[in-house]
Design brief:
By secondary structure, the protein is an alpha/beta fold. It folds into 2 domains: 57 residues, Double Stranded RNA Binding Domain (2-Layer Sandwich), CATH 3.30.160; 84 residues, Arc Repressor Mutant, subunit A (Orthogonal Bundle). The chain is 35% helix and 16% strand. The strands form 2 sheets. It has a 4-stranded mixed β-sheet, with helices on one face. A two-stranded parallel sheet has the order 5-6. α3 crosses α4. The chain starts with a strand and ends with a helix.
Length: 170
């Protein structure tokens, strides 16, 4: 028996499953999330219980929200938790490198370990691992795929909202 619950939200990048335990959000997962989460831990579907999280996610995609106000309860190693906390310091609409994260957590030589921890971030979007790029600025792997990562970065830069606005006027 699990004490988690989940909700599914339709977004411009596909369905996202929000998973929460008693202490807060434990996961935000894409339909084709890589690595795939263990759905046995999602618990019962309860859209009403996660309505606030779903609404904040919808507002983010509408360009109306740049930060999230949600209790988070990620499960990870102490190192992963430090990396994920550093990710939350990356401002909306900006990117940072794996090296920046490594410096930020006080382990400047741990760039590869930071990359691995970043790839295991269970709370996509809210803990903005999509804002991390390679040292040359090139997009690197993302749990939702590189097209999804580019879409999120375009949304945050205003480029996606500009396209949507132009299409709604036409």
């Amino acid at each position: 028996m699990t004490d988690t619950k989940h909700a599914i939200v339709d977004t411009p990048v596909g369905a996202i499953t929000i998973v929460a335990g008693a202490a807060g959000i434990q996961g935000l997962y894409y339909a084709e999330h890589r690595p795939a989460p263990d759905e046995a831990g999602f618990g019962d579907r309860d859209d009403a219980a996660l309505a606030d999280a779903a609404e904040q996610l919808r507002a983010y995609f509408a360009g109306e929200r740049t930060t999230f106000d949600l209790a988070l309860d990620p499960v990870g190693t102490p190192f992963q938790l430090r990396v994920w906390e550093a990710l939350r310091e990356i401002p909306y609409g900006e990117t940072r490198t794996y090296g920046w994260i490594a410096e930020r957590i006080g382990q400047p030589t741990a760039v590869r370990a930071v990359g691995l921890a970043n790839s295991r971030n269970p709370i996509s979007i809210v803990v903005p691992c999509h804002r991390v790029v390679g040292s040359t600025g090139k997009l690197t792997g993302y749990a939702g795929g590189l097209v999804c990562k580019r879409t999120l970065l375009d949304l945050e830069s205003g480029a996606l909202l500009d396209v949507v606005a132009r299409e709604s006027i036409a």
